[in-house]
Amino acid sequence: MSKSENKTQATAASVDAFLDAIADPQRRDDCRRVRALMEAATGAPAVMWGPSIVGFGRYRYRYDSGREGEWMVTGFSPRKNDLTLYLMPGFEQQAALMAKLGKHKTGKSCLYLKRLADVDMAVLEDLVTRSVAAMAPQRIDNAGN
Q: CB under 8 Å to 33, separation ≥6 — which residues?
C-alpha cells in the first residue's frame, strides 16, 4: 500500500460472520436491518472494509492535493457506543429530514445512532437513498445503475 492509499480497504472477510459476532442482540439486529436497507438503496452487496466497517458500492475520489482513492458509497459500523452510518455527502442539504429523524448525532459524514428504535425508519431510509443518489455520478461499481 502506498502512502496515499487509504488504510481501510475492502477485504474478503465475511460480513455474515462479522455481524453474527456482535455480542449485543439489539445491536446485531439493528445492523442486519441497516444492511438490508443499504443493500436495497445501493443495489450492491455488503463488503467488509477493514475489520469493522460494512460498506456498499464504490466510488472514486480525488482531492485538490492530487491524492485519490476508492471508498464505499455508504456503509455502517457497530462501534462501542453508537451504530455509525457513513453517508458520504453529509447532512447540510438534509436539514428538514434530519429534524424528523429522531435521536441522533452527526459528524461530517457520520450519523451516530444508539439504536434504530430511536429513529423514524422511513426518514432514515430516505436519508440513505438520497445519500446514495448524490454519489451516483462518482460510482465505479456499476451497481444500482
A: 116, 121
pTM here is: 0.90
Domain spans, the chain: 15-137
Largest separation between any pair of C-alpha atoms in the chain = 43
Closest CA to 86 of 59, 103, 106, 61: 106
Query: At 14, phi and psi to the nearest 5?
Result: -75, 120
Distance CA 23, CA 106 (A): 25
CATH placement of domain 15-137: 3.90.1150.200
Q: DSSP character for 47?
A: E
Cα separation of 5 and 67, whole Å? Answer: 8
Q: How many CB atoms lie within 10 A of CB 30?
A: 20
Q: Which residue has the cell 451516530?
A: 112
Residue range 56-109, pLDDT digits in tens: 999 988 878 888 888 999 999 999 899 999 999 889 889 999 999 999 999 999
* 3-class secondary-structure state, position 102: strand
Contacts of 18 (CB under 8 A, 6+ apart): 48, 52, 54
Cα 57 to chain center, whole Å?
Answer: 10
Q: Please identify which residue in the block is written with the cell numbers 430516505.
A: 126
